[in-house]
Design a protein that fits this description.
Number of strands: 45
Structural class: mainly beta
Oligomer: single chain
Radius of gyration: 30 Å
Shape: elongated
């Protein structure tokens, strides 16, 4: 009731705020633009670009502020973040066109405690995240930056650069760069406090920040310090009507996991009879899957404490020292459905006290035991000639224990110091260094261990295990819900597992930049340059407890986490030129050429060159035509180089070998049998299992992946061409349009699940072919679960990725007399995004499609449009977010049909979605303003497509919550005090 009241209070406050607009008298903020493209003055200030008042430096190391580079950049201001009521960087980035949702607060199963950004859908490891133009401590073995640690309270703007930028920033900047630029000369005190809650009274998010800054030394220096706290509550899938029940995408019926209660037991030779019926004690066909949705979550619990400090001081005229320190400690918790024995191979004695008599009789008959032998085995003790055991893949959910919890605590420290200044009036220098480290500790509870489970499964009484060591308590795997006692759980789950991931970055750089003092005969501005060198060293290590390192030991944990350590360094030299060729001539208001190059020497991958060439032409002052061509590169990260081979979980609801339609004598049956033998079964066992192989449990299968120390650098050719138009005859208006094209060669990739299935089964290959030997099956039931290695997904440099599209941005601001009107638009049309893992793999298109192969949704067209009306001291602003319609991947559908099925037609399309966020902001005094918002104003619900149609990380709760709002209408209020 309290939460509902809070939600209604925020809603009524929003309406009251709109009503108060006319009566407020303080100064309103400068708002209305979602982003400002480089090369255009802010709407409403035609002279700003010429005067250099809106300088964007991302994308070049050249010093001249009057030169705007040719790479397209959009800048999102801090005022836009305030209107969006944004609390973490990942939240607003994933809503921008051109950004594909990556791991963040809407990802539960698959979230490792960090939030990342994915530009253009090329992967979060192919774009570079910077803070004030410099790299910061990465998170995890992949070397990506955790956006949870970005200090938004001090961010002045966020620059998003399209296309490669390896020449300027080094490796990883293939798809582009996200540069968070902090406020340089903050003076005063600013306090912010905000609170959000859904209309349904859950998902509360609280945030508070305090920033203090001052100038000193007669204006020669400035220091700023900011502290912040944030806390977010979970939203469970059981609290939304569209997600409370798991839905099978292929039948439309209640779905769920085959690890269920009552338990299921496969590999017993009983055909379709797999699940215990508690009423009769018999093993019958599966009748109840486990609905894991209610325990899973749409919004991960999150707590953060962060500090940020920066200072600079001019020690002598033209010489300045500077430093910057960042500290953040955040905790992310994932909540996943109860643990269990997920098809683990167990040896159980016929005299187990919990094994029902009717089920024992069925198992005896299937294994060729006579009634007399079966009766004798039912009471036999170890050592007796009548003592017998059987092996089964057991799937029993431990719902009595509650959910599994993984708590990720990340501590980040990053420090930068340097000196910069002038060598001459036109040439300067910047020498600096940085050290940062990130430590992520994962603690798991509620899982249980396989060793204890196997020990507890062998018992001849309810009070003592065959092996009574370690306080073993026999477990009842054959009972109904509630029959596993606290004592049994205490023994099975009485272990907490932990994994520590530590990464560091150490870097030093030196840059000399400025101009030569000479210019083209047809231009007045001098030719500008930048020359420099850089050194970076990365280290990373994963240290796990002994149980977590064992394959399959921690129940329900997916892959083991063996210890890993690795490091590499890179030495680089670079140079850039910006050359104004013609200025203020007929049809040549300006003509500028850019060029740059960088050589990188990697300790692991050798020497690599990157370069760029570009330019811009302004035939008249109001029109700029720009373009660039770059060769970019990305070196393999520590995870790709050094991770050991482990078997974890992938996604597929289908298995070409599953079901009674596959016979032992058929060609397909022969391939399936060979894959069972490869998994450790005998030929006789394999032949007997064909025709009874179960479908993947919960749409998940085993996959085997690892690093490859032989990996080399992947390279990319990227180019853009576009124009910026700012007509004199429409004051306050600017528009930019840019075409981008990115092609990655020698891409570090692994095949998709669909690639492996297609290579072996469509058309069917020989059992001895390399394609079919990439599949290994469980020897007990023939599935791709249990102890199977599953599908081999090796990393190689054999991949190719290509994407292209068009970005459009427009801004308009005008005075209506009674109010100011501001209109802003940014949109992206993505023509294609194709991925081919190897030369023999499918060249897969993922734009506008979703499936297990196309993990996170990338619509063909999306846009953000903001309309802001400013009346006196108040703003009313409406943000319209559009996501184009998408459909089920045609190649995945063809594979499903070949396997004998496919998702229901109603789940094969998600229609276009329109979201509206309404915000009102007004100044109560000159120093205090209040912002009230209603997000997802129309309370749109996400389209239900079932829970087995896509990747687990992004297809959750029957929907795609990272792309489509699963929380519903939310209300937010924030207050800002400045003095």
């Amino acid at each position: 009731m309290t939460n509902i009241f809070r939600g209604r209070l925020l809603a009524s406050s929003l309406l009251a705020g709109i009503a108060l607009i006319a009566s407020t008298a303080a100064q309103a903020q400068d708002t209305g633009q979602i982003s400002t493209p480089n090369g255009a003055a802010p709407a409403g200030d035609q002279d700003a670009a010429a005067n250099g008042s809106d300088i964007v430096v991302t994308g070049t190391l050249v010093r001249n502020p009057n030169l705007v580079q040719s790479s397209p950049i959009n800048s999102v201001t801090s005022e836009e973040l305030q209107l969006r009521q944004t609390n973490v960087a990942e939240q607003f980035l994933r809503e921008l066109p051109g950004v594909v949702p990556s791991i963040g607060s809407s990802v539960n199963n698959g979230n490792g405690g960090a939030s990342t950004v994915d530009l253009r859908g090329l992967g979060d490891n192919r774009n570079l995240v910077l803070l004030d133009g410099q790299r910061i401590a990465p998170s995890g073995l992949s070397g990506v930056v955790d956006l949870n640690n970005i200090p938004l309270a001090l961010v002045e703007r966020t620059d998003i650069l399209t296309g490669g930028a390896s020449t300027t920033y080094g490796a990883d900047a293939v798809a582009g760069v996200v540069n968070f630029v902090t406020k340089r000369d903050f003076s005063g005190v600013e306090a912010n406090i905000s609170n959000q809650i859904t209309q349904r009274g859950d998902g509360n998010v609280f945030r508070a920040d305090l920033t203090i800054g001052a100038n000193f030394g007669d204006g020669r220096g400035n220091a700023v310090f900011s502290v912040g706290y944030q806390q977010a509550d979970p939203v469970t899938q059981g609290e939304r009507d569209f997600s409370i029940n798991n839905i099978d995408s292929y039948t439309g019926l209640a779905g769920g996991s085959g690890t269920t209660v009552p338990g299921r037991f496969t590999g017993l030779g009983l055909g379709a009879n797999q699940q215990i019926d508690p009423a009769t004690g018999r093993i019958v066909p599966t009748f109840a899957l486990f609905n894991f949705n209610p325990q899973n979550i749409f919004q991960t619990p999150f707590t953060r404490y962060n500090m940020f400090g920066a200072a600079h001081y001019e020690v002598t005229p033209g010489i300045e020292v500077y430093n910057r320190g960042l500290f953040s400690r955040n905790t992310v918790q994932t909540v996943i459905a109860s643990s269990g024995t997920f098809g683990n191979a167990l040896t159980i004695n016929y005299s187990n006290p919990y094994l029902p008599g009717p089920a024992r009789g069925q198992i005896c008959a299937a294994n060729g035991l006579t009634v007399a032998q079966c009766n004798a085995a039912a009471t036999a003790a170890p050592g007796s000639a009548d003592y017998r055991t059987f092996t089964t893949n057991a799937s029993r959910r431990f719902i009595e224990a509650g959910p599994r919890l993984s708590t990720y605590t990340t501590t980040v420290f990053d420090y930068t110091a340097g000196i910069r200044g002038d060598i001459t009036d036109t040439i300067g220098f910047d020498f600096g260094g940085n050290y940062g480290e990130s430590e992520n500790v994962q603690r798991q509870t509620g899982n249980g261990t396989l060793t204890r489970l196997r020990q507890a499964s062998l018992a001849t009484s309810t009070t003592a295990c065959v092996d009574a060591s370690n306080g073993c308590v026999p477990i009842n795997l054959f009972g109904a819900a509630g029959t596993i006692t606290p004592d049994q759980l205490g023994y099975l789950l009485g272990v907490t597992n932990s994994t520590l991931t530590r990464t560091t970055i150490a870097q030093a750089h030196g840059v000399v930049n400025g101009d030569f003092g000479v210019s083209s005969p047809f231009a007045t501005q001098a030719i500008s340059f930048a020359l420099g060198a850089e050194y970076r060293k990365y280290t990373a290590a994963v240290i796990s407890d002994e149980l977590t390192q064992r394959p399959n030991e921690v129940l329900g944990n997916g892959a083991a986490s063996p210890d890993v350590s690795g490091q590499y360094n890179v030495k680089e030299a670079f140079g850039e030129l910006i050359m104004p060729l013609v200025e203020d001539k007929p049809f040549f208001h300006s003509l500028t050429l850019e060029a740059g190059g960088r050589v990188s020497d990697y300790s692991t991958a050798g020497t690599n060159w990157t370069w760029k060439v570009g330019g811009s032409w302004e035939p008249v002052r109001s029109l700029k035509i720009r373009g660039n061509y770059q060769k970019a590169a990305r070196a393999p990260n520590i995870g790709e180089l050094f991770s050991p081979l482990v078997t974890g979980l992938g996604n597929s609801a289908n298995d070409p070998c599953a079901g009674a339609g596959v016979t032992a004598g058929s060609a397909l049956g022969g391939v399936c049998a060979a894959q069972i033998v490869a998994g450790g079964g005998t030929q006789a066992q394999a032949n007997a299992l064909v025709g009874t192989i179960p479908l993947p449990s919960a749409g998940q299968i085993n996959v085997t992946q690892g690093g490859n120390a032989a990996l080399g650098v992947e390279t990319a050719n990227t180019w853009t061409i576009g124009a910026v138009f700012q007509p004199d005859f429409v004051r306050g208006f600017n528009i930019s349009v840019d075409y981008f094209n990115i092609k990655v060669r020698d891409a570090i990739t692994s095949p998709t699940v669909g690639d492996v299935f297609s290579a072996c089964y469509t058309p069917l290959q020989a059992a001895t072919s390399a394609a079919c030997q990439a599949v290994s099956r469980d020897p007990v039931d023939g599935s791709l679960n249990g102890t199977a290695d599953g599908l081999a997904l090796p990393l190689s440099n054999l991949g190719r990725i290509a994407t292209d599209g068009i970005d459009l941005a427009a801004n308009y601001r005008t005075d209506l007399g009674f109010a100011n009107l501001a209109l802003s638009f940014i949109g992206t049309w993505t023509n294609s995004n194709k991925f081919q893992a190897t030369p023999t793999s499918v060249n897969r298109e993922c734009v506008g499609f979703y499936s297990v192969n196309c993990a996170s949704i990338q619509p063909e067209f999306s846009f953000n449009q903001r309309t802001t009306l400013t009346i006196g001291a108040a703003d009313v602003s409406l943000l319209w977010r559009y996501v184009d319609a998408v459909k089920y991947e045609p190649l995945a559908l063809a594979d499903d049909i070949d396997a004998g099925g496919g998702p229901l037609e109603q789940f094969q399309r998600i229609g276009a979605e329109h979201y509206f966020d309404l915000t009102t902001r007004f100044g109560v005094t000159d120093n205090f303003d209040l912002t009230l918002s209603a997000m997802n104003l129309l309370d749109n619900k996400p389209k239900v497509v079932g829970a087995s149609i896509g990747d687990t990380a992004f297809n959750s709760g029957n929907v795609y919550p990272s792309t489509y709002d699963a929380l519903g209408r939310r209300f937010a209020a924030s207050a800002r005090l400045r003095f």
